[in-house]
Each structure stands twice: as structure tokens, then as C-alpha cells.
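Consider today's protein:

***
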Amino acid sequence: MRLNHKVAILAATAAAWGTVSAQELVVKIGHVAPTSGAIAHLGRDNENGARMAIEELNAKGVTIGGKKAKFELLAEDDAADPKQGVAAAQKLADQKVNGVIGHLNSGTTIPASRIYNEAGIPQISPSATNPKYTRQGFKTAFRVVADDVHLGGTLGRYAVKDLKGKSIAVIDDRTPYGQGVAEEFEKAAKAAGAKIVGHEFTTDKSTDFTSILTLTKSRKPDLLFFGGMDAVAGPMMRQMKSLGVNAKFMGGDGICTTELPKLAAGSMPDGNVVCAEAGGVGPGEKKGMDEFRAKFKKRFNADVQVYAPYVYDAVNVMVAAMVKAGSAEPAKYLPALAKTANYKGVTGNISFDDKGDIKNGALTLYTYKGGQRSEIAVVH
């Protein structure tokens, strides 16, 4: 009798656990960024933004369709390499993730987006700015930052009208991001009246810019625009200083990081560098961003580089669509995600247009003073 009684108790306990697990919904969120290689500091920044969002969602006890959701982060490293990015995307698709946040670079985001589209998995990039990403006709592709047309165009106009750039040299790293933002900058600068004295090319792996900078110096530009990332911009600025290239330095969001002064190693006179982040909040919205930065610092013992807040918002926007649809199944919540309107994030208001681009995307212009990023203005 005692044995049967024990069996009965165990059966009842198992049934109870089954009931609990049946009421729990596991939601797998994929995240992809370069957590190895030259810009690993940016990839880790993005991944930590996702991790913080997942931890907070689990602490809140979010319910989707009447079931308590348990969110899991499946993080992959694409090393900013297109082939590795596609492999990471295929791995996440095979794991049947419910959604993907990423990738960081346009060069990995664009080829990976085809994999997610074929699998029907919604993807939100927090930082890819090349226009092509959302112009492929994929209903699964979204982004929460302004694209290169806005970013490069704004910087081009600012270079001429505000920095009084008349003779401008352009260098890009030939990646989809670097080339895209440089070309949009050049178009806008020309339209505003500047003379482009040269457009040279390097790579995102280069470390020696002597020949390009020597040629650039001979053209006597008063401003140099670089389309690429901070890991290349820093050494480039060091070599500009040693070669005596006395020009203001501009770049897009790829160089607009808290790590740049360290990478440039004392080669950034105050106010000489201007860059733009493809996002930003106005004066009335700064409290949320400041609170996020403080929480991030406490959690990871690191300052936000650039896009961790956008990753954080992207995760929360995706989950908000699941809650609204009452389902974490991609096909069921995708229509709700596409209709996202006026979501109040730490990075500002988020609404998507019919391409999946953020509506009325903001840009924040920065310079550097005393080795610290200093905001110039937020523009739309």
C-alpha cells in the first residue's frame, strides 16, 4: 500500500509539473553581431543590449496568449563576415527561433535577411543602415535606425553649411555600409556646393594608410570623410597626425563610438571630429536614455558604445507585437510587428513604414572633447 501511495504521489507531482510546463511558453530570440574581430567591442555592446532586455522581460513575467513566456537568447557571432553571417542565420533558422535581432553590419545583415525571409522569421536590425536591406521586398525585414540616405545626406549638408567644408576628400572601406554612407555623403556635399577632391578606397582590415593619406595631403582638403568603422578610423587619424594632414575628420555611426578616442590615441583635437549616430532622442526624451545607460553600466560594468539601446528597444518591440497578436509564432505576430506605431522606447518613438524602415528616424550629431563624446544636435 505504501509503495502504491508513493507512486500515486509521484504521478500527481508529475502531472502538476506537466500542467505548469504546459502553461509556460518558451520564446527563442536570436541575436547576431561580431563578438570576435576588430569591432568585437561593438558586437558585445549590441549583444548586451539584447541580454538586458531578455532578463527584464523574464523578470516581468510577460504573458503571450494566456501563457507565461520564458525568453531565451540564442547569441551568434558573425565576425562582421558575410559568409559567417549567413551561416549564423541558417543556424538560427534551423533552431526555429521566434525572431532575430541583428545583424550589426549592413554587409552581414543584407545576405542574412534572405535566410530569415525564406524561413518566415521576423528580423529587426538595430544598426544596419544600407538602404538595400529594406528594399528587397522582404516582409520580414525591419530596422529601428535611419538609413544611409538620411545619415550620409545629413552629414554632407552639415559638412558644407556648418563646418564650412569647401574642399573635401572621401575615403571608404568598400563594405556595403562604408561605401553606402560615403556615396550618400558625397552626393549631399556636392549638392551643397563642396568640391570633392578625391574618393579613395581601403578595406575594413587595413592598418596602413600612408599612400592614401599622402595622396590626400597633396590635395589639401579642409575636411576628410571616412565611410567605415572605428577600428579603422582610429589608426587612420593617428597616421593623419604623423603625416601632417590638417583636415577636419567626419564619419558616420560606424566611428561614432565611445571607444574612438582610445583607438585614435591622442590624435583627436577637441572639436576636430564630427560623426552621427543613426538615432537619437530629443530633450524631452533624454531621461529614458540616461536611465538605460545607468542600468547598462551597473549590469555590465561598461559604458554603452553606440547601439545597445536600439537592440534593447528592438527586442521589446518584437515582444510587444507577440503580446498584441497573442502568439510568438512568426506568421501570427508578423502582421502586428509591421503595424507597430508610436512604441515608446528608450531611443524614442518607433513606427515602421511599409518597407520596414523606421518613420521619421532621428540622427544625433556628435563631436569629441576631452576624449569624451559630446552631443551637438538631434536632427530629423
User: Anything to note?
Assistant: The chain has two domains: 24-145+285-359, 149-277. Residues 5-21 have pLDDT under 50 and may be disordered. DSSP finds twelve helices and 15 strands in the chain. Residues 149-277 form a domain with the Rossmann fold fold (CATH 3.40.50.2300).
